[in-house]
Every structure is written in structure tokens, then in C-alpha cells.
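ingest -> fold -> write
write: protein_1
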Amino acid sequence: MQHGVSSHSVGMWRHPQDKVGWDYASPPYWEHLAQTLERGLFDAVFLADELAPYNSFEDSSDAT
């Protein structure tokens, strides 16, 4: 699993259930992630260090 605090889908932030109410700077977010991975029997997780948004089509997120 690769996980970062910004979405891989440019327009996913518009979805009503996309990480609603999570504070990425608080321990409960990361505790929840770790517990979810443990339940799924994951062996590892890679936390990307990039907080910048991903590329979008023609420098616009309008298409999403």
C-alpha cells in the first residue's frame, strides 16, 4: 500500500466520503490507519513524503 495525505485522484476531495473530518496532523488519524492495516494483515506501508498536489490535466482540475 502507498499512502499519502493528498489524494491520488485529482477530484476525489469532492466525494462526500473522502476523508471527511480527518485531521492528518493528529495521532488518531495515524492510529486508525495502523489499526485498519493490522486488521487487513498488511506487512508494510509506504508513507510518501510529498504533500504537493499531483499533476492535473492541462493544469486544471475542471475535468474532474
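write: protein_2
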Amino acid sequence: MPFALATDHLDVPGFAGCTVADLLAFGVPQPDVLAALKARLKRDIDDQAESLRLKLITPGSGQAMEYQEAYSQAQAVLTATGTVKPADYPMLAATIGVDFDPDTGKPATDVLGVARSVKAAYEAYLEAGAAIRGVRLGAKVEIEAASDVDLALAVFSAIAWPSFG
């Protein structure tokens, strides 16, 4: 997935809004430019990773808590012995008839079906999230190890983000 390379507005004191080329032309020492560029590229990598994650999930810390609670309830339902009551699993009960049960391919008719749906969504996101995390952290390590501006830019330009749907 292509992302724009943002090398403007590097954080170099006294040179706000300058590009790498401008900074070097003004005589800013290459190590200072490289340090600012690395910081910027690593922030851009985090932003790109978040952009990819948001294609798969809804943003917000409250939403994350909802996902976490739904998954916790799904695990409890899927490991329960005996009858489960919808009232005991309110996050799951809320989407009976809305979530699709992966076993039937139809709207879930009970909390067990919703639990299977939540588990399937969690597993799909876990795989995607791990792929994003691996690329994100690997690229940041490579950028930090770059010995010059051109190498840091080359690493950034070569990032191969996973694609989803």
C-alpha cells in the first residue's frame, strides 16, 4: 500500500518547515538532519500502521474496551459448561440477530452464535494486527540503524504494508 513520504517539517531547531534537502543546503550537519528524519519517519510509520488498523476496527478507546469485553464474554461462553443465559453476557446479547454466526452463515440466534462471531473476528484481527506490527516495528528498527539520510529514506520507501480486502 503506497503512503506519501512526509519529509517536510522536520524537527530541527531554527529550521521549522524545512525539507531534508533544505536542511542540508543550509549546512545543518548530516547527523542532525538524520536524527530529525529518523524521528519523523518513525512517527509516519506509526501513523501508517494506525491507518491500516482503522480499516479493520472502529477507532476509540471506548471501542477498544467494548471489543475487549465482548471477546472476554465470548471466551466465557465458548468454554462454559451447561446452559448460558443472555443476561449474563450483555455485550453478546446486544448483537443477537446482528452478528453472523460463522457456523451457520446467518444472523446469530443466541449468545453462543455471537460468541463464535466475536471469536472469528478476533482471530482475523489478530492475524492482521500481527502482520501490521511486524512491518511497523521492523521498519522502525531498520530506520534507526540507517547510517545516512538516503538509506533511511530508502528503508521508508521500501516498506511493504500488508493489504486487506
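write: annotation protein_2
Residues 25 and 118 are 55 Å apart (CA to CA).
The chain is about 60% helix and 0% strand.
pipeline exit 0
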